[in-house]
Structure to design on (1244 residues):
C-alpha cells in the first residue's frame, strides 16, 4: 500500500487488546480495527505507545502487524512502530514489520543509551537507508527523554530520510516551528506533520498540522474524524466544541490512583476499560507490569463515557 | 554454574568487540574473556551497558552469551543482562540468555514506559517468578530515568526476588543505605551489593560493597583485582593509591569531542580503542548510531594507557 | 488603580533598560513604556522574567516600579513581579512593590527549596492573605522547576487566592485544562487566564485565553495588539498570518552562540539589542552574569527586525 | 577573623531557630551556637540551606549574622551564605553579611535564570572581585538545578576566585575529581574541598576532603567532631562505626509524610524538632510555606534521638 504524501487525516494508534493471560486477542483487535475503519479514519498506526508496544514481545508485535494488515488489506495504510533502543535493534523490527506488510515504520530517537543530536540524526539516516518503506519520526520525550530538535527534524525531512513527524512532545511552539519550517522550504513538499495530542488537535490543525494520532481515538474515533473534518472546513467554533467534548472524555486517563500506579497503567487501563465497556474488546487487561484499574476506577471510566454520550 | 551467595569480587561488564561491519567478533571476544579471567576476576557480566547491550540485536546477544559460556565453561559464573523495556520483553531475554547458559540475569527497572515504584517491584517479582536463575537488580538511572528506591530494593531482597544489586547510580549515600539495610536484616544474608563505579570502588568497598562491576576493568582488570584485594585486606592507603591510578586512567572516557558525540560514543569508544591499542581486540568499532573517535582522540586514549603503565 | 476582572488584553512584561554600568536607565524605561502604551497595550507587567527581575537588586526593583507607576499614573494597571524563593521573602517584595503603586503582584511557586503541591498552595494563600492587591500566579517551570498543577490553580482561583494565571509553561494542554476548569465553575467568574507565549498566542486565544504576556511585545507591541484584536474578532486566518510574522521575528532569541552563553543571555540580549536598534532604549546591556551579544549577533537581530518590517 | 587556608574540620550549617510567629529566636540561636562551639567544631556556616536561608528575609539574614558573629567574636570563623538568584543580588547579600562580620561568603551558581558554564564562571568572578572576604563555591544541584562542572571549579580555584568548595551534590566521583585536580596543581595549594554530606563523611574524608558541613551536626555536633577526628587519625573502622551511627540518626529526615509535605519540611522539621527535644532551642517552627511535623512525626524524631543515645 503506497503511503500518501503527506500523511494526513486521523491515524489512531491502535490499542492492542489482550486476553486475560496477556496474549494478543486477535478477534478483539479486529473488532477494534473495524470500529476505527468504519468511523472513517485515514490510516492505522500499530505498535505505538498506546498500543503498548513497549510491553509486547517480538512475537506479539509480529502477530499484531500481520493480523491488522491481513484484515484491512489495501483499504488503508498500516503504519507500524519499530520501537527499540538503538539502530541495530530498530532495524530488526523494521524488517519484521515490513515483512508483515507495514506501509511505513515509526521510529523514535535512541533511548537507554544517551545520545547527541548528531547520533540521533545518524540513527534515522541508518534506519531509513535500510528500510524498504518510509520512516516517520516519533518525537516522544516523555518516553525517550530527549526532544527531537526542530533543526534535526527539518534536515532529515529535507533529505527525505523521514516522510513525516509524529509529535507527542506536547510542545506546540516547537510543533509550529516544524510546520513553518516545512512550509518555507520547497524541498519539504509532501512532508507530513502529525500531532499525537488528544486535547489540542484543533490548535495543532489551526497552526498547520496535516494529521492527528490521538490515543483516545480508539475510544471515540467518530469524534476525532468529526473534529478533523471541522478543522479542515475551518469551522473553528464547532471544532472547538467537539474538541472540548473530547477533552472532557480524555479526563478518563486520570482515573487510576496515583499512589498505586503510574500514568501508563492509568491511561492505557482507562482506554481499554472504555473499549471493554463499549463492547469492542473482550477483556480490558493491560500488559505487565502495569497495575489493573480497580472496579471503582472502571466505574469512573463508565461515567466519562456516559457524559460524552458514548454509553 | 551455581552462583555464590553473596556475589563478590570483581565482575567486569564485558565489552562486545565488533568487526568493522558491526558483527560480533567472537575471536576478539574470547581473547578479551581470557584477558579478564587470567587477571583473576571472579565472574563475568555480559550484555550490560558497557557491553553495548542496548545496541546488540537479539541474535548478537545470544551469540555473545553462548560464546562466552562455552569458553569459560564452569570456571566462573557468567551473568547476562536481560535489558529491555518491560516485563514480557525482559522475560524473552531471560529465556534466551538462560538457554545459552547464563548463571544469573541482570535486570533494570522498566523504561520507555513511565512506572510507579509498585510497578517496578511487580516487574522484578514477575521476572523472578519466571526466571530459572537468580535475578540481579541493575540500578542505572542515567539509562532508565528512575532510581530504584532503597526500600524497594530491600523488600525485593528480603523475599528473595533479587539476589544482588548492581548500583550504577553514582549515589554512594543510597548505596550505603542498601548495604546497611541488608546487614541489619538476617533475612538478607547472602544478598550481594555491587557497585558499578569505576572511580569510587575503594569508598564503596569501605562502606561494605560485596563486589565491583567497573566497565574500565575491561581495559585494566589487573588493576581492579589488585584494588579489590587491597580493599579486602583493609590496606586502605594502598587501595586509595591504586584507585587514583585507575581514576586517572578513567579520564579516557572524556576523549570524545562533546560537540560531535554523546557520552556513550566517547566512553565505549575509548574502552574499545584501549583494548585495540593493547592488542586484545581486532577492531575498535562501536555499534550504530555511535560516532567513532577520531585519530587524534584515539591517540589521547593511548596517552592515558601509557600514563597508567599499560602501553 | 483597580484591576479589571478578568485581566485581559496585551500585557507586556516590560524589559528593564540598563546603563552601561548596569544601573536602571529610567529615561529609556519611560521611552519603552510610552512605546508600549502608545501601541495600545492593556496593562504593564514589570519585574517579570523578561524584565530581568532575577538580576535586579531590591533597590533597582523598587526604582522600576516607582518610575513606571508615576509615569503611567492611572492610565493603565501596572502589575509587578514579587519574584523570590519563598513566602517570607516574597512578602517583602509584595510590600515594596505595592508601596510603589503596583496594582497586582505576580508570584511564582517557591524555588530553591523543594516543595510539595500542598506547600505551593500554602505559599500562595499566605502571600494573598498579606497582600493589599490581587495576586497573579506565575507558572514558569523552566525557572522554578515545578509546574503548577491544574487542580492547585483552580482551587486557588476558586477561593479567590489568585485572580489570574500567567502561564509560561509552554504546555497548551494544561493551559486549556485551566481555561475549561475555570469556565465550568461559576465561582471562578472573573478569573483571568493569560499566556506567556510569544508564538502560540493565536492558539491560546482560540482555546480561551483572556490575555497575553509576550516578552517580544517589547519589540513589537503593535504586532501583538493587532494579533490580539484579530483573535478577539475571530479573524483567525489573519491572526495566524500576524502570529507567523511574529514567530519569524521571535527567531531573534536564538542569535546568541550556545557554546558561549545561555538562553537568557541570548533572548534578553536580542530583545534589548532590538529595542536599541529601534532607537527606544539607549543601551542594550543586560545584567550580570549574562554574556553580551557580539557585534555579528546584534547584526543578525537587525536582520530579524528588517524582515519583520520593523527597521 | 582570618580564614584558615585550606578550610578544614567540622563546619556546621547552623539552623535558624524561629519563634512561634516565625521571627529569628536569637536566644535559641545563641544556645545552638554554644552547643556547637562547645562540641569543638572548627567554624560556623550561617545562612546555608539548613539555615533556611531561602526562607529568611533580608532583615532576618542580617540579624542572624550579626547575632552569631557578635557572640563567637574571634573564637572561630563565621561563614555566611549569600544565596540569591544572580550576581547583582548576591553582591547585595555579600555587602550585608560582610558588614555584619562574616569571614567568608558562600555562593551558589545562579538559579531561576538558566545559565551556561561560562556565565557561572563569570558570576563567581564578579562576586569575588567585589567581595572583601574569600568566596566559597556551594555546589547544590538539588536547589539550583545545575551542577558545578569540575573544570569550572578547578579553574576558579586556580585563579583564586574561590577559596573552597562546599559540595552538596551527592556525587562522590565528581567530588574526588575536584580533590585530585586540586592536589595535582601546586597553584591550588590552600584550596579547601568540603563535603555537605551527612552520610558519607568517612568516604569523603578517605578520598581527601578537607572538611565537612553536615546539617545533622546541628543535632549531634559531638558525633561529627568525633567522626572527623577518627578520619584524620585514619582509624577507619571506628570512623565507619561512628558514621553508621550518624547514618541511622539521619533517618529522621524521612519522618514527614511525603503525601503531605516536601523533603525540606520533613528534614528541617526533623532537625528542629530534635534540637527542641534536646532542649537547645525553644520552638521547633520552620519557616513558611513549610508544613509542620505532626505530633506523631515529632515522636518518631524522639525515637531516632533515643536510638542514637542523644535523649
Amino acid at each position: 500500500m503506497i503511503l500518501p504524501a503527506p500523511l494526513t487525516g486521523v491515524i489512531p494508534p491502535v490499542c492492542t487488546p489482550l486476553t486475560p493471560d496477556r496474549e494478543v486477542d486477535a478477534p478483539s483487535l479486529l473488532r477494534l480495527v473495524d470500529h476505527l475503519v468504519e468511523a472513517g479514519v485515514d490510516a492505522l498506526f500499530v505498535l505505538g505507545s498506546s498500543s503498548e508496544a513497549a510491553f509486547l514481545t517480538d512475537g506479539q508485535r509480529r502477530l499484531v502487524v500481520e493480523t491488522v494488515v491481513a484484515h484491512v488489506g489495501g483499504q488503508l495504510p498500516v503504519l507500524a512502530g519499530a520501537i527499540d533502543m538503538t539502530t541495530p535493534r530498530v532495524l530488526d523490527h523494521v524488517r519484521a514489520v515490513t515483512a508483515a506488510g507495514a506501509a511505513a515504520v515509526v521510529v523514535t530517537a535512541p533511548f537507554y543509551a544517551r545520545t547527541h543530536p548528531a547520533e540521533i540524526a545518524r540513527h534515522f539516516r541508518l534506519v531509513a537507508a535500510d528500510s524498504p518503506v518510509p520512516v516517520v519520526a516519533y518525537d516522544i520525550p516523555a518516553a525517550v527523554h530527549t526532544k527531537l530538535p526542530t533543526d534535526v527534524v527539518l534536515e532529515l525531512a529535507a533529505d527525505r530520510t523521514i516522510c513525516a513527524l509524529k509529535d507527542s512532545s506536547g510542545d506546540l511552539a516547537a510543533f509550529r516551528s516544524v510546520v513553518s519550517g516545512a512550509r518555507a522550504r520547497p524541498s519539504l513538499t509532501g512532508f507530513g506533520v502529525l500531532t499525537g495530542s488528544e486535547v489540542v488537535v484543533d490548535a495543532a490543525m489551526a497552526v498547520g498540522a496535516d494529521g492527528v494520532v490521538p490515543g483516545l481515538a480508539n475510544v471515540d474515533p467518530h469524534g476525532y474524524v468529526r473534529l478533523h473534518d471541522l478543522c479542515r472546513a475551518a469551522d473553528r467554533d464547532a471544532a472547538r466544541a467537539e474538541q472540548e467534548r473530547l477533552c472532557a472524555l480524555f479526563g478518563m486517563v486520570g482515573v487510576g490512583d496515583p499512589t498505586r500506579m503510574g500514568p501508563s497503567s492509568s491511561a492505557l487501563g482507562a482506554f481499554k476499560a472504555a473499549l471493554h465497556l463499549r463492547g469492542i474488546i473482550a477483556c480490558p487487561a493491560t500488559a505487565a507490569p502495569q497495575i489493573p484499574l480497580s472496579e471503582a476506577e472502571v466505574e469512573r471510566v463508565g461515567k466519562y463515557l456516559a457524559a460524552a454520550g458514548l454509553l
Q: What stands out?
A: Strands of chain C lie at 9-10, 44-46, 78-81, 104-108, 135-139, 164-167, 192-195, 211-212. Residues 9-235 of chain C form a domain with the TIM Barrel fold (CATH 3.20.20.70). Chain C has one domain: 9-235.
